[in-house]
Amino acid sequence: MPGLLRGVARTAVVAGTATAVSNRVSRRQGNRWAEHEAYEQQQYEQYAQPEYAQPQYAPPQYAPPPAPSGGDMQSKLEQLERLGELKSQGLLNEVEFEKQKALILNS
Predict the structure, then answer these.
(1) pTM (whole model) above 0.85
(2) Which tops the pLDDT comparison, 56 or 82?
(3) Of 12, 42, 61, 99, which has the fewest beta carbons less than 10 angstroms from its beta carbon?
(4) In the predicted model, is pLDDT for residue 3 greater than 80?
């Protein structure tokens, strides 16, 4: 019987040692995974900050149209007459004439 008791005791020691080592390895791996996940979360939060976000562009700001100046009416009439002559000579088509006329009247 002492041999049997010795064998059981030896088996218990070996099994206990194996269990302790296994638990220690599992705990160490768990800690490493936790550290790795914490590191990844930190990296995610760092790059999720607004400074790393895609820039948001404001819509373009256009200058307001120039205010009509109190230009000389005689000068405008002369320019319109010259413009009419160019149109009658066939140098300007209807669209170009209207565009230039609007520029003269709005200046």
Answers:
(1) no
(2) 82
(3) 61
(4) no
Region of residue 96 (phi > 0: left; psi between -120 and 50: alpha; otherwise: beta): alpha
What's the 3-state SS for 29-94? HHHHHHHHHHHHHHHHHHHCCHHHCCCCCCCCCCCCCCCCCCCCHHHHHHHHHHHHHHHHCCCCCH
Angle, CA of 88, 92 and 97, to the nearest 5°: 95
Distance CA 107, CA 95 (A): 19
* 94-106 and 73-88 helices, crossing angle to 10°: 170
Of 59 and 77, more confident: 77
pLDDT at 65: 60
Structure tokens at 4: 């049997």
